[in-house]
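User: I'm writing a tutorial on reading structure tokens. Could you give me a worked example: one chain, its sequence, then its tokens, then a sentence or two explaining what the tokens reveal?
Assistant: Sure. Here is the example chain.
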Amino acid sequence: MQNDTARPLASGLTILGALARVLPHLPNFAPVGSISLFAGARLRGWQAYAMPLVLMAVTDQFVGGFSAATPLVYLAFLINVFIGTRLRGTENVLKIGAGVLGGSLVFFLLTNFAWLMGSSMYPHTLAGVIDCYVAAIPFYGRTLASDLLYSGALFGLHAWLSRLVVRSERVGTLQTA
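And here are its predicted structure tokens:
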């Protein structure tokens, strides 16, 4: 009997995505949202939630460290994992795309709220909240673009390689336990 939690292809692609995080990139153009969504969709149980957290904790040391906003950033990625769990049995591009859009929006809302609360740049009023979110829209565009690109790469590579190399990870043959 094969271990249902063993997913070497999905784990390897997740780690490969984490390596891309430490390479030079534009602000808010990183693979972490996609890694989280992909981990939720293709890894099982605690591994799906642990993988992005461990990768963030390790790579944060190299790309800017920790801040007061870190707990909300990590929460956003855990929500992405949860969204990914809703995609476990599918390779449907529209469903995965909807998951990417939802995850990117959650990240935008939570991290900008953290920025607003930890900053004196905007007043803590309704007008300040609106100003903060409006000013963050260009960053959201980069987050969404990177999430679409990296998710396409991760889900696409997994679909292709699971047909050619690691057939046991093919979505149609995965157990949903």
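What the tokens reveal: Helices lie at 8-22, 32-42, 45-60, 70-85, 93-117, 126-135, 137-164. The radius of gyration is 17 Å.
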